[in-house]
Amino acid sequence: MKYGLYPGCSLNGTGIEYGLSTKAVAQKLGIDFVEIPDWNCCGASSAHNRNHLLSVALPARNLALAEQHGIDQIAVPCAACYQRMKAAEVALRDEATRQEVGEVIEMNVEGKSRTRALVEVFANDLDADFLSSVVVRPLSGLKVASYYGCLLVKPAQVAIDSPENPMIMDKLMAALGATPVEWSYKTECCGGSLAITRPEASLGMTANVLKYAKLAGADCIVTPCPLCTSNLDMRQKAAEGLLGMELGLPIYYFTELMGVALGLEMSQLGLTKHFVEATSLLKNSPAAQ
Amino acid sequence: MKRIGVFVCHCGSNIANTVHCEKVAQVAKDFPGVVLSTDYKYMCSEPGQVMIQEAIREHNLDGYVVAACSPRMHEPTFRKCAARAGMNPYMVEQVNIREQCSWVHADKEKGTEKSIDLLRMGVAKVVKNEPLYSTTIPVTKRSLVIGGGIAGIQAALDIANAGYPVTLLDREHTIGGRMAQVDKTFPTLDCSACILTPKMVEAAQHPNIELMTYAEVEAVDGFVGNFDVTIRKKARYVDFDKCTGCGACTEKCPKKVPSEFEMELGVRKAIYTPFPQAVPNKPIIDANHCRYLLDGKCGICKKVCPTGAVDYEQKDELIMERFGAIVVATGFEQFDISAYEEYGAGKIPDVITGLHLERLMNASGPTAGKIKRPSDGKVPEKIVFVKCVGSRDEAKGRPYCSKACCMYVAKHATLLKEKMPNSKSYIFYMDVRTPGKNYEEFYARTQNEYDAQYIRGRVSKIFQVGDKLIVRGEDSLLGRPVEIEADLVVLAAGMDPRSDAKDLARTLGISYDQHGWFTEAHPKLQPVETHTAGIYLAGACQGPKDIPDSVAQASAAAVKAAGLLSKPELTSEAMTALCDEAICSGCGLCQSICPYKSIEIKSVNERYHGQMRQRRVSNVNQGLCQGCGACTVACPSGAMNLKGFTNDQILAEVDALCQR
């Protein structure tokens, strides 16, 4: 299988584990990811607050580049990048917008390449039998709360799954042998975009996500979003203080758990780079033995 | 040339504000055939009609055109007006310069111009009108009521009491409908069964009512006064002539099935009566669950039946009956709450609907009237109601108000407090709508005396933590979010049309709106009639309704049906199709397209080059034809003509428009 890859800024920075594990898992599964040459910022979190045209033009240039290189499907790991790229793809279906944006980026853009969230690619495109055949260390006994965040499921035009109760990551986790828990905070906002500007408001929201995952009996949280991960992981200590309860919930990218199940080394997947210690749960789980 | 009169109506200011009526009348004087053209403030008024009648006599008119409102409004008036002056009523044409001109345009000059065009067409057409005559057809003095809920029962009783035989049909094997599931009724809190069952028994015992339960309408042919209805009587596998209703079979049946009547909160057997007061009170076998019918094993009910009434060989039976009038009273379905994933609806067992709560409250329900929540049987203390679930929600495709929920929630809150004085009800609402007699007073009492707390706002999320349900919403009066830890959540699910309502509508030839509610002929002035003559609507199949409204509409529909049946005969349509046999090629297209089955192909003998030969041509039964005109459009050779709308007349109109 061949896909374009739009890594975005976080996969080499705050979300380096996501970048490492995505690369390792793709290699192991024989998926060919071709990074879009000369890609630029998707504009997430700031452009669409300032200027609508800019917010479409930035990702549109990436789409245009993908087209030039004959890439039909672009896998986008970061949820924020995915949302901006998909929003541009939808906006470009309009003839007038296509023309206007084409003039701004000085490139011809047809809007032919399809933007797909990485989690969607792994959850929907991999054959179930193939996946179970390559799982060497099933995650048996690991209770995971699948946390999708807000960006992948809303609004309806860009949603990869049901906005209220998405299931694709739960199903992927079950295919790896883990036990997804039933919980109600799958798509609640983590407060991501307020983390810098209004940390006190953001922390309450982050803390609630963590609290209800814990109450649902999860051992850990799995996400497809670098922003959610940094909030839940980096601020977990502060959230524990706010809630007055101990959490101890490792926050994994779904690619990290895939990597573990496929038998890859933890350090190779970036699992040693977490704020909340993330390796012992996997070492101690029955899966490791 | 015929002598034609033209009468232009002002309709007060309705037309005159956007059309120069005097000018229109003036211009029409020069149209071919017009010998008199005048205008008047209200042509439909008595002086207006007298004016027309005098003109007919004075100017010896052959026909006239009235430019006024829609023919839907006053065509009968102006036809009768002609008849009173001795003119054939079909020598009148009505040109619509109100709905199709003045009401939809603002520019007076252009409105006048358009009125003149419309009138020119009308005059060109009336010149080609021929006198038409209607005949009479007999009326079958029997009525069919489809649906045996409270609306159907009421309609059947009223028609029967007026002296006409009624067949009351229900697809379930008991009558009673939704009201039978309800525990108490607002605003009086009298027991639903106590007021319903006497009516059920009365209907069953009425000499003019034939109960036909477990039966469905398969096909409807014919037309007003003479509908030929094909009914499927579904196999019950119990011979009702032999069954005494002793109940031995139900007791011994080993197969338990979630009871539909109990909203699946309780169980029934595979051979069962849905509830103790069912009418008829004899069991049937549910073929989808019966062990014997599914895999030939068991047969216990047959063994224990003392009268040998169980008959596994019974088959569906099709019967055809003729009725003069049909009342449709098929009711509603409760909205399927699983569409609200954010409320955990359909997943969290303690998030239930209003009908579930009715069954939990009912003394003969699955908990014998004790409020126990479905998950663990615990008695709830904090109960949250969420209103407008599946109503007034564009996102769920239900923009309409379901009308009964505000009141049934108030009723539930009152009854819960009475049953459990320590309980507390919280009610999330958008608006509280109580437009009914004593409704507002009831709502006030719920708040003031029964301690129900009304919170104005929508609920955004319901989820389970431990054995509590966290209800998160907004109090839009305080302007802040609220969170309630509840033991039980009741969603006030709205009303949906029956999922197969559209199929029935097509079978009956009646119309329905975008949601599937049956459409009345006029929202204000013909609320129980349909656009199909002889078919009437009662109850919630026409739109959400509570019990008093359903009963009122049922009685109204009954009066319409009885009024129709009381006529000695009906006047047949005069504007019917006619086949020109000289042109007809006998292709039969018209026959297959005719919705009233009024066209037959017959053979005619004719002389052709000195020899006799036989040819096939269409023949329209003038009694059956309803003048819909479908055949005239289908006819490839133009042999089929609709009297009053002949090809010649329509072409004359087109010509007139082109000659302006």
TrEMBL record, chain A:
One Pfam family named in its UniProt record: CCG
Where are the annotated coiled coils located? none
Give the UniProt keywords, A-Z.
Answer: Oxidoreductase
> Is rRNA-binding tagged as a keyword?
no
The region annotated as signal peptide is none
Which residue range or ranges hold the Cysteine-rich domain? 4-85, 144-233
Q: What is this protein called?
A: Heterodisulfide reductase subunit B
From TrEMBL, chain B:
* Residue ranges of every copy of the 4Fe-4S ferredoxin-type domain listed in the record: 234-264, 281-315, 575-604, 615-645
State the needed cofactors, names only.
Answer: FAD
Specify the superkingdom: Bacteria
The UniProt similarity line reads:
Belongs to the HdrA family.
| Keyword terms, alphabetized | 4Fe-4S, FAD, Flavoprotein, Iron, Iron-sulfur, Metal-binding, Oxidoreductase
Q: What is this protein called?
A: 4Fe-4S dicluster domain-containing protein
Gene3D superfamilies named in the record = 3.30.70.20, 3.30.70.3270, FAD/NAD(P)-binding domain (3.50.50.60), NAD(P)-binding Rossmann-like Domain (3.40.50.720)
**What species does this protein belong to?**
Heliobacterium mobile
Give the PROSITE patterns listed for this entry: 4FE4S_FER_1, 4FE4S_FER_2
Molecular function terms from GO? 4 iron, 4 sulfur cluster binding; metal ion binding; oxidoreductase activity
Q: What is the lineage of its organism?
A: Bacteria, Bacillati, Bacillota, Clostridia, Eubacteriales
Pfam families attached to this UniProt entry: Fer4, Fer4_7, NAD_binding_8
